[in-house]
Design brief:
The protein is about 80% helix and about 0% strand. The protein is an all-alpha fold. It has one domain.
Length: about 80
């Protein structure tokens, strides 16, 4: 069974990232790589760091969500007709 990728890029976004990655490899490392190696490198990097970035984003949102839901609960308690 094939797992769904954590990050789905549309064709245009992927092409821009591939161009930027090729440019980086050429400018910074003086390595010219073709389309397939660049695609494989991008896929590897996304699979390697994507889950870590995703988890960090979830962790970063938790305090905001906690404060927001607490505020909503406080607002609801004020509306009670007790």
């Amino acid at each position: 069974m094939k797992h769904k990728k954590l990050l789905q890029l549309d064709k245009e976004e992927e092409e821009l990232l591939l161009d930027e990655l090729r440019d980086y490899m050429s400018d910074e490392l003086d390595i010219d790589i073709g389309n397939l190696p660049t695609k494989l490198l991008l896929d590897y990097m996304v699979n390697l760091i994507g889950p870590k970035i995703y988890d960090q984003a979830i962790e970063d949102s938790e305090p905001w969500l906690y404060d927001r839901f607490t505020s909503i609960l406080e607002d609801l308690s004020v509306l009670k007709k007790d």
